[in-house]
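Bumping with the actual sequence this time:
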Amino acid sequence: MLTLDHIAIACTDLTVGAAWAETAFGVPLAPGGVHQEMGTHNRLLSLGPEEYLEVIAINPDAPGPAQPRWFDLDGFAGPTRPQAWIARVPDLDAARAAAPDGIGVPWSLARADLRWRMAVPKDGKLPFDTLFPALIEWEGEAHPAPRLPDHGVRLTKLILAHPDAEALRAALTPISDDPRLEVIAAETPYLSVVFDTPTGPLTL
């Protein structure tokens, strides 16, 4: 089974995206860091002791990888918005074997004492138009979530809208029992996330 780990909010400029998120949530973001292997950087927000949110963008001061970046960031444009969700798994290789085609190949990544393996699609695009989760396996006990200041923001619903909702639901049902997950039919794929915040509900 997979467990929701974090939400990726994409933006074209990290400073602008972080300011937008702080206004939307009404709380400050914590410092994040750089992902040298991917040429990206981020800022973070606690969603509780085991979940978090990252605002992520291409780092203009870093070279990119030899392939497209994760979360289809090379194709991202427009306003800051939810771009992907990331699910924690105990065994990345086993999870990849059970996932739809195109889930990606394992990358070993690190920042400070954080160590993780992640499946990154060769074209940067996750299955079902990025609505299937990226898969991550944390190595060791270190994890970002419990280190972040907790401002009381919580994820209450994750809505995956896709033209082939039945196929997406069939792919997720055997591996996720999270009651917050909702798959709906829509002509255009999109990811929507609902949060509880100190100032009330927020839908992105």
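The tokens above came from a reply further down the thread. The chain has two domains: 3-147, 154-203.
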